[in-house]
């Protein structure tokens, strides 16, 4: 009657086996090999282990190379942006110089586009007399006396 282990014992063994597998997956333990493996099986397991270690090292090297390439790309992108800004600034200066040399009158809209952007001046003081006269003229036009 005692040939087969009890249900409780089988359950406990299954739990221990599962815990061992979880620990192996987390890297806490080396997997346990059966004690009755042949030499050929042991050699095959050893070859698989070495192949795994080699591929793992190759993966880590590739990851490091990728990170280095990303850093180099970001640095090159910053250098390109600085060079592009310098080209744009010199192009603006060159256009303004040639236009001044030729005596070309540049319309205000284009001149404003050519000049670097500055914040608008602060409005201080009373409104201009032109504005108030325009306001009065508009009021007279709407409501003739």
Strand content: under 5%
Compute the number of strand runs. 0
* Content-based structural category: mainly alpha
What is the rounded Rg?
41 Å
Major sheet size, sense and barrel closure: none
Question: What is the strand and helix layout of this fold?
Answer:
Blueprint: H1 7-26, H2 39-102, H3 108-114, H4 129-142
Describe this protein's structure:
With 145 residues, the protein is mostly helical. It has a domain at 16-115. Helix content is 72%, strand content 0%. It is built from four helices and no strands. The longest helix is centred in the middle third of the chain and has 64 residues, at 39-102. Residues 1-31, 116-145 are annotated as: Disordered. Residues 117-129 have a biased composition (Pro residues). Residues 11-28 have a biased composition (Basic and acidic residues). Residues 1-10 have a biased composition (Basic residues).
Provide a short characterization of the protein structure.
It contains 4 helices and no strands.
Q: What keywords describe this structure?
A:
145 residues; coiled coil; mainly alpha
């Amino acid at each position: 009657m005692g040939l087969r282990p009890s249900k409780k014992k089988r359950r406990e063994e299954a739990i221990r086996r599962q815990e061992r597998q979880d620990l192996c997956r987390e890297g806490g333990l080396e997997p346990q090999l059966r004690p009755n493996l042949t030499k050929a099986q042991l050699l095959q397991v050893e070859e698989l282990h070495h192949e795994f270690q080699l591929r793992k090292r190759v993966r880590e090297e590739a990851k490091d190379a990728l990170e280095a390439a990303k850093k180099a790309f970001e640095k090159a992108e910053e250098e390109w942006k600085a060079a592009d800004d310098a080209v744009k600034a010199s192009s603006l200066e060159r256009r303004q110089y040639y236009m001044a040399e030729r005596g070309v009158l540049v319309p205000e809209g284009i001149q404003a586009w050519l000049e670097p952007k500055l914040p608008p001046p602060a409005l201080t003081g009373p409104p201009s007399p032109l504005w108030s006269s325009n306001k009065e003229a508009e009021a007279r036009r709407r409501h003739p006396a």
